[in-house]
Amino acid sequence: MTNTARAARTSEIDVLVSEVGPRDGLQSVDRTMPTAVKGRWISALADAGLREIEVGSFVSPKLLPQMADAADVVAGAMTIPNLKVLALVPNVIGAKNAVAAGARSLTMPVSASRAHSQSNIGMTPEQAVQQVAAIVDLRAGTPDLRLEVGISTAFGCTMEGPIDEDWVIELALAAAEKGADSVGLSDTTGHANPTQVRRLFTRLRSELGERSGGAHLHNTRGQGLANVVAALDVGVTTFDSSQAGLGGCPYAPGASGNIVTEDLVYLLESMGLRTGVDLEALIEARSIITEGLPGEDLYGQVAEAGLPKGFRYARHR
Amino acid sequence: MTNTARAARTSEIDVLVSEVGPRDGLQSVDRTMPTAVKGRWISALADAGLREIEVGSFVSPKLLPQMADAADVVAGAMTIPNLKVLALVPNVIGAKNAVAAGARSLTMPVSASRAHSQSNIGMTPEQAVQQVAAIVDLRAGTPDLRLEVGISTAFGCTMEGPIDEDWVIELALAAAEKGADSVGLSDTTGHANPTQVRRLFTRLRSELGERSGGAHLHNTRGQGLANVVAALDVGVTTFDSSQAGLGGCPYAPGASGNIVTEDLVYLLESMGLRTGVDLEALIEARSIITEGLPGEDLYGQVAEAGLPKGFRYARHR
Question: Model's pTM, two decimal places?
Answer without folding.
Answer: 0.95
